[in-house]
Design a protein that fits this description.
By secondary structure, the chain is of the alpha+beta class. It contains five helices and eleven strands.
């Protein structure tokens, strides 16, 4: 009986070791893009055209949208803009288009969050029911970077941090570097 248990445990350990090695040898592929890059995706052409990391006052001056962080304290807003052109010969539903570019903001090894949908509703004004062939549209994604999420020293150097917008629906994991 002991021999059977030892063989089962040895097989389990061997399988577990081989699995860990195979996972570590094949890390997920990440495609990195910068502001100014273009990609083709599902019948659209996407230009990563603009990004910002700004105080609420700067954000209001640029967009006209007044963001109040309430009791949450000091914050900044990080944003990225995609200019999407429908290169297909079919209409695309706005909901589908927004799902394709769904993602989240990260600052590697430190912070991540989803976009702020309330601000996005004010920023993104879509014309018509669908995205027609040949039509161009800018789509903004915005998130709040709250001082409470960072140590004091890290917050003082927040403008030096790397920020990325991660897209989940592309074939490979896709990250857009946000220029700040």
């Amino acid at each position: 009986m002991k021999r059977i248990i030892v063989v089962i445990v040895a097989c389990f350990l061997l399988f577990w070791t081989v699995r860990i090695i195979s996972i570590n040898q094949n890390p997920p592929v990440t495609d990195y893009y910068n502001i100014g890059d273009k990609v083709e995706f599902r019948g659209t052409e996407v230009l990563f055209c603009e990004s910002h990391l700004e105080d609420p006052e700067e954000f209001k001056a640029r967009t006209g949208i007044d963001y109040d962080n309430g009791d949450e304290g000091v914050c900044k807003l990080v944003s990225v803009c995609f200019e999407v052109t429908n290169k297909s010969d079919k209409d695309i539903k706005w909901d589908s288009l927004m799902e394709w570019f769904d993602g989240g903001f990260v600052s590697p090894e430190c912070w991540c969050t989803a976009y702020e949908s309330k601000i996005m509703q004010e920023l993104n004004m879509f014309r018509g029911e669908r995205f027609s062939p040949g039509e161009k549209q800018k789509i903004w994604f915005v998130a709040i970077v709250n001082k409470l999420c960072f140590k004091e020293k890290a917050w003082e150097r927040i403008n030096e941090r790397e920020f990325l917008y991660i897209l989940y629906c592309f074939t490979n994991k896709t990250a857009v570097r946000i220029s700040v």
